[in-house]
Structure prediction request, 1086 residues.
Amino acid sequence: MSFVFNETHEKQFQGLLPRYPHLKALVLPCLWMVQYQEGYISAEAMAYIAQKLDVPQAHLYGVATFYTMFNLEAIPQYHIQVCKTLSCELCGQADIIKSIEEETGLRVNESNALFKLTEVECLGACGGAPMLAVNEDYHENLTPEKTRSLIQRLSQ
Amino acid sequence: MSEMVNIMVDGQKLKVPEGELLLPVLLKNGISVPHFCYHDALGPDGNCRMCMVEIEGQKRPQVSCDTFIKKDMVVNTKNENINDVKRKILELELLSHPVDCPICDQAGECSLQDYYMEFGLNEARRPKEEKKLKNKKLDIGRNIILDQERCVLCARCTRFTQEITHTNELAIIGRGNDARVSTMPGQQMHTPYAMNIIDLCPVGALTSKDFRFKQRVWFMHSSKSICHGCAKGCNIYLDHNQEKYKSDTIFRFRPRLNHQVNGHFICDEGRLTYNQENAERVNEFYHHNRIITEENALSYLLRWLNDLKPLLIVSPSLSLEELYVIQILAKRFELDINAYSEGYIDLDFEDDWLRSKDRSANLEGVKKLGIKMSKDELIASLKETTCIINFNHKSFIGADLDIQALLAHKQEAHFLSHLFENYKHKELILPISSYSEHEGSLINEEGILQRYEAGLHNDKKSLLELLHAAISTPDTASQVWEEGLSEVLGIEYEEIPPEGKQL
Amino acid sequence: MITKIVSKNFETENSHTLEVAKQNGAYRSIDEAFTKPSYLIETEISNSGLRGKGGGGAPAGAKWCLATRAREMDNITTSSYLVVNADESEPGTFKDRQILEFDPHLLLEGMILTCYAIGANEAYIYIRGEYKFFAERLNEAIAEAYADGILGNKVKGFDYRVDITVHRGAGAYICGEKSALLESLEGNRGHPRLKPHKPSPEYYFGKPTLVNNVETIATVPFIVNNGAAAYRAYGTEKSPGTLLFGMSGHINNPGIYEMAFGESMQDFIDKIGGGIKNGKKLKAVIPGGASTPVLSAQEVKEARLDYESMKATGSALGTGGMIIMDEDTCMVSALKNLLSFYHHESCGQCTPCREGTAWVDGIIANMLNQKAKKDDIDLLSDISKTMNGKTICVFAPAVAMVIDGFILRFRSEFEAYIEKSLGEAHV
Prediction:
């Protein structure tokens, strides 16, 4: 059960090759493509990328574990990441978390079949605080009501 | 060659090479500067921040591993300010460090302990219950146990696998104070030099499964020896201790620095040959399976030498002194010697660094002394004799079918350090000391002549002593050199430099 | 108060498309600039006094010089690199995304001019992983530019190649530090590099590299079109030009507002920000993104928004992203929020930062949980001293100064928590 880039990603990879002076620079783009293809980065995928880029597997593992956004295990369909840094905290982040807890029954760092709920650091949307990201999409200027609607919409 | 300039260190003038890195120069001049990530074989990494010194004219303390020597520099390594800095950085290293000292093998040779005693001595300002929990007993292969909690993240081990062996098994994973050393999950160390990271690790994060919990380091004595695992002649420390009611035992080998021969490292297999050295010894003199006295044994020996024409088989791992004395013996009694050593060749063992395909320690010595080695000469000699005297040549026994056939009806006398199967059934057995127990010298495969000192104190007589008792040949190494070996090799025994001499 | 140098197109519909951007003058600067020697651009930038807008405020011209001079000294015929730092992760900072969203072609134009100036043919935009939407905006704009012959082997028909590649990070604040960014761009963990002993450019795979913030590069077209003096007409003598200032927190009108340097912070908060939410009184402002020391309401009254004035208050202008805190804010909780952030984001390479950030986070947490010890404030100050000036990069010194700033101005709140803790302990 080993990993291989699908056609789209292989094409993307080939397109990126001439853009960098060294194969090694493609580590991050490749890890992203793996995550888009499988939803997370498995050991097999890391072995595949390590060979493709001629980098040691342990090195790749060290890089993958350095960054917050890479999942090393499969996660549910919707990863709800609520920003917890200062501006969002000042603007009522706690209420947003509470409304998600009430709507899903999940506490922070818990998952169910559909959602995983985490708190993350500043997402660069302080002007729209409080806010959260669902997978990679930002939802800013939240209120508890808006948050509840969002969860309900995703649950359908 | 850089110009030598004057600098001041702790009030003393030093003459040092300009432009070089400050830390190793300070260390070479005997000035203790605490450090974790710097290592002579790996260079600096700048991450531990322990090597900070005060440089006059610089606002902040500087890491001496990233400072280059400038003429008239004024350096302080030990005043109140910099000691406070060192103490605070050490405190941070110890913050999450588990207080494992009572069960940690590194105790007694641990940089954290040493630095704490030197300039720490402060109370903990955070309870250990708040420390970060990590994996404590990871078997990462090749006899290495990793304790991630003890690790100070100096990166010496990861850099070793990246820059020295290029096998890249280790990396730092995670981020911040969750960072830890790890292999790729499911993978293990596989380089044949893996156990060197145990020596490199300044703390007890990497320990030897082989040595684990066996001996406290402060009980051991370190002797300067040479590994006999192959013809590379890597320098080692032989760490041994004689516990009550037991014989002096070797607990481990560690690499000893020799820039000419092995640098800072040794191979794992060579490191573990101490087990072979510790293996069961022959303790008595035997004649036809009966224990006899030394006097009796030597008189049997003399009878063999006088009445029969035994072929002398010598091990290519004997010391030069032992080989030379056997040559004297051979000349006196007009006997043939042969050091046939095909059995020592292991092509699979060879690599391009510290492992030689020749698993004997002194074949160059055999050649230098002009001792015969070929199979044809051996077979010819065997056909003309009824007996052999084997001087500790292990691989010779049962080596080759032709030779086995020729040995079938010969009488055998053996001088041996370690026993082999059914040894008592040979005609004459004489126990001798092994290389860990007497001093001697060897020539490695590159022609480098090296001395090693006696290590263990056991009551075994050396080959030189036994032959002296029998036929009055020189009984000490220096005697042997005086009486001819120095002429053959063109150097005096005392003149052999510590790192050896290229002949 | 509002100026329109980099933000001039922000309110235009579809400003991110090439068509609309061109209608508003995009890429016109190239037509003349590329007929003249490239050093002229560098000279203009130096004369303009443009300062880096990523938080450091270092003179851009001097940085550019290092890259070009190194290339000359290295005697290499291959070019150097330009890397645009779009890692924007400083809490309170959300200005670069405005350019990426509303005027990506302005950034691309700036990049093309900069590449020409420093002799680079390859440029990368290192964008934080979370900014997926903005990375897509950039890629669309780049595709448009290639299709139109603006990017590629012959920029607008000139015999000069510029290739731009968007490179996504994956969630690490420390990768906004320029040497850590380059490590990440090289395919390594984002560990900052040891700093050189003499002025040096950065290096990407061994070639001299210029790393500049998005807004800094987006300002280049204005300066090339209008000249250094036109830029200097804005701002103060030592802090010329404008900045995309930001406001968030307990403010009525949070957002990004471009202003010339030198305005009064109080005016900015009252007039543009609309004052404190819910009619509350102002208590404190973190002036330039989390890593700048907090200011009390009294200090805000006298503060002016330029690098020198902010430095004189003992704080710093940083990215100009102000976090506004009202009278009900618990300053100890605010500090805890920030120390959690730093604890999570420390790369872990060097000892004082790796262990220090975790320790101080724990101490503050204990304080809030009423488990503080009597000397915890002094302990925090002591750890802060160890973290300052002894690490590989400026992450730990920033944490140290943040701690010092909070304790200096709001010590009584910390003491109150300790009182509560000791009171609890005695019960």
